[in-house]
Amino acid sequence: MGIAILGTGSALPEKILTNFDLEKMVDTTDEWIRKRTGMRERHIGEKETVASLAATACKRALENAGRTADSVDLIIVATCTTEMLLPCAACRVQNMLGAEHAIAFDINAACGGFLFALNTAHHYIASGACKNALIVGSEVLSEIIDWTDRGTCVLFGDGSGAVYVEDTGTEDGSGITGMSQGSNGMAGSMLYCRGRVVKGETEPEINSEDLLVHMNGGEVFKFAVRQVPVCIKKALDMAGLKPEDIDLYILHQANKRIIESIAKSLKTDIERFPMNIEKTGNTSSASIPILLDELNREGRIKKGQRIMLSGFGAGMTFGACAMVW
Ligand code: ACO
């Protein structure tokens, strides 16, 4: 059995916010942001929502795969910023696509969400419960960012990326060959967002800043450079591969320096780690499929190449997936 990505798609909001725009909002500079993160600009949703961006990304992924919405069995949206609690974003996407035969639900594993959704879909397909799936990472992080906190507001962007996966059953060797994922709830306080006040809580007990994203950037940085290589090595072991066997590492675009440290730790040439962080910022669960779509459409991923996807995020969560394209 080959469970392979047959199509990719993405969608970014129209509005672009540059580092120079941020200079006018908080005490920061273009130079600081570029040097510490590799980012120059990011997209910000104004009229776009998690579901509308996800639906556009899905349509593009289906088109790219040469498939139609009525044949989709499963839709999983990875998101931590859905605009409505009920119904879930995946059901709204199902409605927008007219994918009436699909099972649809969301996963929240923050920036690790896309890998968690891909792993879940893999199990559904491997068990025979489904033949195909649309897997989406979609975020409008600008809604939960504290725009007065320079330590976080310069980092994030909005957008969506989707892949269409199918049991191709082919003998050409394409498909997922190794997966690894994990969670560390004990480290949850490194990066959190309360989001809303719940019943029984009163103002003095809640720090209003906690309703927005709160992050210990240094600790998250250390967590990522320690945990991601371990997770990647587990997926490599499962696939029977060594770091140098991978042609392209498509990692969560959180910080250019994190990606450089991971490349160093795996003793692998940084050229194998493509990045688009300069133009998108950290789009959380959407960053891996957005980059994948960009590379796919530019023809930079070739049939038969070995690809590693890996991400980490609030929770803390982490995941990796090795595949042959
Ligand atoms: N502009 C200017 N100065 C700033 C800014 C800013 N935007 N932000 C912080 N600073 C200052 C700090 O106040 C500090 O000043 P001080 O030395 O006078 O105290 C100085 O810059 C250094 O701050 P650090 O936090 O030590 O800077 P660092 O090099 O660690 O970079 C960063 C900060 C970019 C946040 C980094 O730690 C990072 O990328 N961490 C990982 C974040 C991440 O990946 N988050 C996403 C996780 S995925 C998810 O689930 C959402």
Describe this structure in words.
The protein folds into two domains: about 5-165, Thiolase/Chalcone synthase (Peroxisomal Thiolase, Chain A, domain 1, 3-Layer(aba) Sandwich), CATH 3.40.47.10; about 175-325, Thiolase/Chalcone synthase (Peroxisomal Thiolase, Chain A, domain 1), CATH 3.40.47. The protein contains ten helices and 13 strands. The chain has helices spanning about 20-25, 30-35, 50-65, 90-95, 115-125, 150-155, 215-240, 255-265, 275-280, 285-295, and strands spanning about 5-10, 15-20, 40-45, 75-80, 105, 130-140, 160-165, 175-185, 190, 215, 250, 305-315, 315-325. The protein has a five-stranded mixed sheet with strand order 1-7-6-4-5, sandwiched between helices. A four-stranded mixed sheet has the order 8-13-12-11, with helices on both faces. A two-stranded antiparallel sheet has the order 2-3. Helix 3 (about 50-65) packs across helix 4. The structure holds acetyl coenzyme *A. Acetyl coenzyme *A (ACO) binds near residues 37, 215, 217 and 313.
